[in-house]
């Protein structure tokens, strides 16, 4: 009879059994909701991942965002990407109060050869020789479709301020245009144009930057753009000042083989599930989403029009250390390529383009790129892209610092501040800063 104590109050006309029924049904509804929500949130995670519950919550939020976005798109309300952008920027506003303030860093929004960039200048006057400072050109991640630094106090803005402050460096974050409004090669071309403009001696001089100490860097899709731009700048004889280091944080480096051991192992690990990665590729390449199954198909890699020499550039049976291959085997050889014939016309040429897939570059090109830092996470579909690139750069004679996080997951570096922060994200930022501090 206890429930009546709380709700019996003014209900003179409601019979006791009626109230009991209402109470019971609300208990049942609550129970169903609780089970439903728990089921939605729960994702089995490897034991090595710290703070699993927090990651499950973050992942559920991302999935919900994608699903509501898809629903909006189905109903013809808007493309799902602008919706997701709006939600993320709303969440980042929540974090603004807690964002790491870097009082002295001067921020200005300008254009580099018509590409909008945000320039962070450190407080201290001068630095090294003759008052010259180091510099980092940074490309943010977000699947070539999301993300921006100009959102004040967003995670990328906080990272760039911290870099500028701690390294006493000029940091230039490039606001390249995004999918679905534009697609490949526009993102790449924006990044390249901004890089060429920045590296002009006159521009470096105006910002008091030491031309011997300019890094190019980026995370995830930004790591893809950084690697591709680093290659192009290295071989372009019209550019006299070159990048002196490249720092790639869990970069995407190829889209031909989405069945590497890391794709197999981590296909369902938050927050970059394998099917989401494939969707970002399709968005970037500007091709129809109906090609999603084709991109994921293991037989794609064995298409007869792919020259064996190119295929060897991403042959993980040769390029990965055994401890990362584990028990995984190449899949799909036996399926042949019949099923993909005829549909691949839109996809293959771009996926074979080194501007989209820097892992496929020739050794001679790789050998001209600067010293590298490559961060990889064990629990990331992109782990093997980074590890294979490490190996290919080393084979080409480039010095590579490979920082592998055994407990890392994709995107962790963007989650080092309230409301979503992970210890591993903080450690990654520390390691990245320390490497730049010593090597730039
Ligand atoms: C990768 O290399 C191995 C060993 O050299 C070879 O047997 C295999 O066919 C290659 N795989 C592909 C996809 O080319």
Automatic annotation (TrEMBL):
GO biological process, one term: lipid catabolic process
Catalytic activity: a cholesterol ester + H2O = cholesterol + a fatty acid + H(+); 1-O-hexadecyl-2-acetyl-sn-glycerol + H2O = 1-O-hexadecyl-sn-glycerol + acetate + H(+); a 1-O-alkyl-2-acetyl-sn-glycerol + H2O = a 1-O-alkyl-sn-glycerol + acetate + H(+); cholesteryl (9Z-octadecenoate) + H2O = cholesterol + (9Z)-octadecenoate + H(+)
Cross-referenced SUPFAM superfamilies: alpha/beta-Hydrolases
GO terms of molecular function: acetylalkylglycerol acetylhydrolase activity
TM stretches of this protein: 24-42
Group of enzyme by EC: hydrolase
Pfam families: Abhydrolase_3
Residues forming the catalytic site: 220, 380, 410
EC number(s) given by UniProt: 3.1.1.71
A GO cellular component entry from the record: plasma membrane
Gene3D superfamilies xrefs: alpha/beta hydrolase
Top-level taxon: Eukaryota
Annotated ranges, domain Alpha/beta hydrolase fold-3: 136-300, 353-412
Topological relation to the membrane, as annotated: Single-pass type II membrane protein
Keyword annotations: Cell membrane, Endoplasmic reticulum, Glycoprotein, Hydrolase, Lipid degradation, Lipid metabolism, Membrane, Microsome, Signal-anchor, Transmembrane, Transmembrane helix
Protein family according to the UniProt entry: Belongs to the 'GDXG' lipolytic enzyme family.
The protein's name in its UniProt record: Neutral cholesterol ester hydrolase 1
Organism of origin: Oncorhynchus mykiss (Rainbow trout)
């Amino acid at each position: 009879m206890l429930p009546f104590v709380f709700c019996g109050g003014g209900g003179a006309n409601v019979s006791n059994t009626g109230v009991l029924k209402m109470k019971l049904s609300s208990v049942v509804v609550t129970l169903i909701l609780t089970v439903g929500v728990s089921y939605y949130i729960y994702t089995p995670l490897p034991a090595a991942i710290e703070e699993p519950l927090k990651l499950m919550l973050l992942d559920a939020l991302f999935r919900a965002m994608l699903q509501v976005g898809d629903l909006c798109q189905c109903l013809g309300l808007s493309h799902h990407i602008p919706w997701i952008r709006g939600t993320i920027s709303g969440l980042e506003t929540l974090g603004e109060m807690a964002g790491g303030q870097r009082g002295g860093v001067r921020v200005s929004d300008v254009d580099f050869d018509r590409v909008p960039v945000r320039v962070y200048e450190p407080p201290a006057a001068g630095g090294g020789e003759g008052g010259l400072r180091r510099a980092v050109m940074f490309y943010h991640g977000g699947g070539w479709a999301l993300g921006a630094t100009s959102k004040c106090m967003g995670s990328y803005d906080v990272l760039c301020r911290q870099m500028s402050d701690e390294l006493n460096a000029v940091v230039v974050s490039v606001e390249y245009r995004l999918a679905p409004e534009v697609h490949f090669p526009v993102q790449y071309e924006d990044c390249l144009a901004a890089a060429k403009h920045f590296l002009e001696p006159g521009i470096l001089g105006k910002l008091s930057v030491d031309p011997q100490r300019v890094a190019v860097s980026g995370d995830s899709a930004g790591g893809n753009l950084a690697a591709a731009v680093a290659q192009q700048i290295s071989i372009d004889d019209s550019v006299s000042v070159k990048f002196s280091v490249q720092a790639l944080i869990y970069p995407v480096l190829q889209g031909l083989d989405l069945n590497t051991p890391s794709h197999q192992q981590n296909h369902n690990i938050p927050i970059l599930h394998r099917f989401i990665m494939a969707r970002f590729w399709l968005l970037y390449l500007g091709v129809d989403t109906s090609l999603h199954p084709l991109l994921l198909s293991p037989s794609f890699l064995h298409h007869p029009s792919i020259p064996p020499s190119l295929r060897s550039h991403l042959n993980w049976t040769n390029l990965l250390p055994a401890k990362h291959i584990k028990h995984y085997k190449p899949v799909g050889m036996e399926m042949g390529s019949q099923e993909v014939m005829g549909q691949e016309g839109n996809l293959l040429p771009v996926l074979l383009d080194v501007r989209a897939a820097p892992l496929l570059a020739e050794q001679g090109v790789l050998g001209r790129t600067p010293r590298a830092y490559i961060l990889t996470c064990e629990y990331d579909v992109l782990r093997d892209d980074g590890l294979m690139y490490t190996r290919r750069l080393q084979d080409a004679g480039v010095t590579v610092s490979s920082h592998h996080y055994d407990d890392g997951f994709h995107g962790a570096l963007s989650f080092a501040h309230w409301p979503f922060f992970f210890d591993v994200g903080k450690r990654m930022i520390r390691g990245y800063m320390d490497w730049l501090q010593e090597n730039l």
